[in-house]
Amino acid sequence: MSSQLFALGIDAHDPRVLAHFWAGVLGWKPADAAPDDPRDGITLLPGDGDDTGFRIRLLPSQEPKAGPNRMHFDLTSTSPEQQQETVARALELGGRHIDVGQRPEEGHVVLADPEGNEFCVLESGNRFLAECGFVGALACDGSQQVGYFWSEALGWPLVWDQDEETAIRSPHGGPKITWGGPPVAPQSGRNRLHFDLAPSAGGDQQAEVDRLLALGATRLDVAENDPERGAPERVLLADPDGTEFCVLTPR
């Protein structure tokens, strides 16, 4: 048994602003024609022909961003012109250039969304992500051990395991999830990006939580159902590096 990566959750001070930004950059659409209740966040779904395999949920939160995120998008380019077009589109939608220590000779462009969440627009010709789509990778700050953990948790095979760097990818395609190995920056507050998992079809939430705990996760908290908001019950866990993630009730 394994979990399904149901969504990438992004905490947002203004979910509508970030939903507009990421829908415009990625070409994704809101899950419903009517605007979502801002208390519950906004869900974006991949566009036609996009094999990403999970959704994005922009979730309301007033917690400040504490240092660089442990996870960011790597967006691919098929040509220098497409890279320039992606950067220009992101800037027009409210993104900005940022300096994270990248060297001038590196071909990727580092940007931040309107709330400071980092992402990269890669140069064309990236061989590691050659078979991936526009969303080429979720690049994570994490250890080799945590790469092994997520491979078991999701049932995704390792597609890279060298020099303490790891990567996994769904057997059905989509982006790779990568971990850069040591040094892993210490946790500094709640991570603004996190995985939302759902038990596989016919699975049980508690049985899945128990399985993830046996693999090396730790329990952090449980958020109960709120009948007025209809928010799904979720169990909050952390992976072996201390990065938070949620296990949702089956749908």
From TrEMBL:
<dbReference type="InterPro" id="IPR037523">
    <property type="entry name" value="VOC_core"/>
</dbReference>
<dbReference type="InterPro" id="IPR029068">
    <property type="entry name" value="Glyas_Bleomycin-R_OHBP_Dase"/>
</dbReference>
<protein>
    <submittedName>
        <fullName>VOC family protein</fullName>
    </submittedName>
</protein>
<dbReference type="InterPro" id="IPR041581">
    <property type="entry name" value="Glyoxalase_6"/>
</dbReference>
<feature type="domain" description="VOC">
    <location>
        <begin position="131"/>
        <end position="250"/>
    </location>
</feature>
<dbReference type="Pfam" id="PF18029">
    <property type="entry name" value="Glyoxalase_6"/>
</dbReference>
